């Protein structure tokens, strides 16, 4: 496995786990992996299906999936810490690489950022996993409807599984940190892609811009407005640079979610300022 730490904004980063040895036989895949693969096959069939309820289910499901946080998707990309994987990592000769753009992280900041990403959402995923499990029996009466499957039940099953995977991924990263099994591996390819965000600036100005971003991303700097570092098209460029097509969707999702949140905050701030601005203008008009 290899980890990627990708800053999205001046305060938020995406963690992504790449499975290096993915060529497993069906017998080697875990029971949950086989169920997941089967569910994916069924979903594809429903996308191509002719029945109205299948199309509506797919439409609703895709919208629901878009609302799942990029943090959850990122943690889900990290495999659970099974007994076999734990033994392999403890007995392994090498450490797990953490790839990141050197320009955006100060010395010692990579591991602290990873720990924050690994621990901040553990309680949330545990709580929501149990919440989904508890709610499952409440959907039992819907199974009596013969026309279509019990969609709410299967949705809760998926959400419980999704939260479990995110929780397990976070515990895996925490285990690697506690056992000192991670190795920082600055990526020049990632560095170049992040520098491309400042392509319109000269090298001197771009360097100063990156230093500003490093300061703004440090914990406790609340007076500086958060801003995006990447753009949507950065996902494709980063995926090409590191040779991982799957990472494109994760970056694009993170950029969109963070961008939408920052836009909503700016609009709310402007709405709150409008009355005071109007009052100031009225006062100025009276004085004139």
State the order of secondary-structure elements, H for helix, E for strand: EEHHHHEHHHEHHHH
Count the helices. How many? 11
Low-confidence stretches: 23-27, 200-206
Main pleated sheet: 4 strands, mixed
Query: How many β-strand runs?
Result: 4
The helix fraction, in percent, is 55-70%
What general outline do the C-alpha atoms trace?
globular
Looking across the biggest beta sheet, what order are the strands in? 2-1-3-4
Please give the radius of gyration in angstroms: 23 Å
* Mean pLDDT score: 81
Distance between the termini: 69 Å
Question: Which band does the percent of strand residues land in?
Answer: 5-15%
Structural class: alpha/beta
What does it look like?
The structure is a single chain. With 288 residues, the protein is α/β, with parallel strands linked by helices. The chain has eleven helices and four strands; from the N terminus they run E-E-H-H-H-H-E-H-H-H-E-H-H-H-H. Strands 2-1-3-4 form a four-stranded mixed beta sheet, with helices on both faces. The longest helix has 42 residues, at 246-287. It is globular and about 65 Å long. Residues 23-27 and 200-206 have low confidence and may be disordered.
């Amino acid at each position: 496995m290899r980890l990627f730490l990708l800053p999205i904004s001046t305060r938020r980063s995406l963690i992504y786990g790449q499975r290096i040895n993915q060529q497993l036989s069906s017998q080697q895949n875990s029971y949950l992996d086989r169920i997941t693969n089967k569910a994916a096959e069924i979903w594809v069939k429903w996308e191509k299906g002719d029945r109205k309820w299948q199309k509506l289910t797919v439409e609703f499901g895709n919208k629901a999936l878009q609302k799942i946080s990029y943090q959850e998707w990122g943690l889900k990309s990290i495999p659970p810490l099974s007994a076999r994987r734990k033994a392999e990592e403890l007995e392994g000769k090498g450490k797990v690489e953490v790839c990141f753009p050197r320009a955006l992280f100060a010395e010692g900041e990579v591991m602290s950022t990873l720990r924050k990403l690994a621990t901040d959402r553990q309680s949330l995923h545990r709580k929501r996993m149990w919440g989904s499990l508890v709610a499952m029996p409440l959907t039992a009466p819907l199974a009596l409807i013969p026309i279509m499957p019990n969609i709410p039940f299967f949705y809760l099953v998926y959400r419980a599984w999704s939260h479990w995977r995110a929780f397990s991924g976070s515990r895996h990263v925490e285990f690697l940190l506690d056992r000192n099994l991670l190795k920082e591996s600055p990526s020049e390819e990632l560095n170049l892609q992040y520098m491309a965000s400042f392509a319109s600036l000269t090298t001197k100005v771009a360097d100063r811009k990156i230093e500003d971003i490093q300061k703004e991303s440090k914990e406790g700097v609340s007076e500086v407005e958060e801003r995006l570092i990447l753009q949507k098209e950065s996902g494709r460029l980063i995926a090409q640079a590191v040779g991982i097509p799957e990472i494109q969707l994760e970056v694009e999702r993170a950029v969109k979610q963070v961008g939408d949140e920052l836009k909503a905050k700016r609009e709310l701030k402007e709405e709150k300022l409008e009355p005071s601005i109007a009052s100031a203008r009225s006062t100025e008009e009276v004085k004139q």
